[in-house]
Amino acid sequence: MNDPLQKKLKENRKRGVRQKLEQELTSLRSKGLHYKYGDADESKRLLHTVLSYDEKKAKIELEMETVDEARQLVLKTINKLEPNQLTSHIYLFHEESDITGALSMKVSECVMHMDELFDFIQYEDGRLMNSFMILEPNGRFAICLFHTEYGQELLYVNHQVIE
């Protein structure tokens, strides 16, 4: 396959996936969520960074029974952020982030629409890509609630994640 054709196919796939996501996000937009898509390549790089982050003291293994418990834990963890970080933009990763780019929004927007965002990422499916993962694009902080084979794992880093 030649390069221009591959590029066109990639663009068409990205457009199709974004149209699907836009339909899924209609109710969130109507409730006032403001977001944009981050760069797909940057999203892949950031996702790889957060998935390979290996500072043991930043991770806590958990076992939660309900999605509500998971949401409450994420909110409690977000409350640990510095006040100026609440206005920062973050990337929220979803199943198609590698194609469309992660959703970029302010932390405060994420908090305001937490319930719907958990539904959007399909957290209840219990797979790694349905984990709740937010990362400040410059790597200054990350809050991730990963699904693991044994339960959940909270990653909270409030210092430079990306070297």
What do you see in this structure?
- Pfam families: YxiF.
- The structure is a single chain.
- By secondary structure, the chain is α+β, with helices and mostly antiparallel strands.
- It has one domain (3-157).
- The protein has helices at residues 3-24, 26-30, 40-51, 67-78, 97-100, 107-112, 114-120, and strands at 36-37, 59-62, 89-92, 103-106, 132-135, 142-148, 151-157.
- A 7-stranded antiparallel sheet has the order 1-4-3-5-6-7-2, with helices on both faces.
- Strand 6 (142-148) and strand 7 (151-157) form a beta hairpin.
- The longest helix is centred in the first third of the chain and has 22 residues, at 3-24.
- 25% of the residues are buried.
**Shape summary:** globular
Low-pLDDT windows of residues: none
Determine the N-to-C terminus distance.
Answer: 37 Å
Total of helices: 7
Helix content: 40-55%
Global structural class: alpha+beta
Cα radius of gyration in angstroms: 16 Å
Secondary-structure element pattern, one letter each: HHEHEHEHEHHEEE
Pfam families: YxiF
What topology does this entry show?
Layout: H1 3-24, H2 26-30, E1 36-37, H3 40-51, E2 59-62, H4 67-78, E3 89-92, H5 97-100, E4 103-106, H6 107-112, H7 114-120, E5 132-135, E6 142-148, E7 151-157
Antiparallel strand pairs: 1-4, 2-7, 3-4, 3-5, 5-6, 6-7
